[in-house]
Write the structure tokens for this entry.
Amino acid sequence: MKISILAPVVGATMIAGLASAGAASAVTTETFNLTVDGCSSTCFASGVTSLGTVTVTQTGGALDFAVDLTGGTLVNANGNSQHHALAFSIAGSGVSGVSISDLSTGFGSSVSSTPAVNDAPFTSTTKFDDAINYTGSAHQGSTPSSFSFVVTDSANNLTLSDLTASTTSSFGAIYIAADVFANGQTGNVGALAPTTSIATPEPGSWALMLIGVGLVGAPLRARRRNALALATARI
């Protein structure tokens, strides 16, 4: 009887501890929507409010970027100092030794210690630090609509808070700018503060929490079986 009383308490304690551990090791994801039109002639067709998303996942001291352009939007093929597939800044306090790896085929990167990436019109006051450049040979209209890469720093402790905005006079705080081909036009589209933030436990934490749930449920199931057996014996 003591076991059936104590087991749920132990199980509940384990669940609380495991839930805490799961939260501590959570994978955090933020989604940026490309909703700000910086093209000289609009890149947004009538009724279109977003040309894609940039999903940034914080995991293991790194930031994983996944860019997905939508509605026929493609990467601008003009890869030069004024045209970047994606521009952003990693400039958190104490961050140093930023590097970019695991790029999709057909893309390269540039990283600077001072803001040097020009993605007009989003950089009239402060330029971006980092850029992903399209290096493939595809012509306009047949370039990719998605790509991905990973950003790390020398200490391997990047968080989403280290992704900073470029403050401009006319567009406000733009975190990310993408040079695109859309609606028959080319130009930069931008993303403001992230619109989605999700925290989910990693797979290992989920498994541990399920074990804790099982520990709580086992005594309850045993108690029901015993009650049923007793009731049957009395009939």
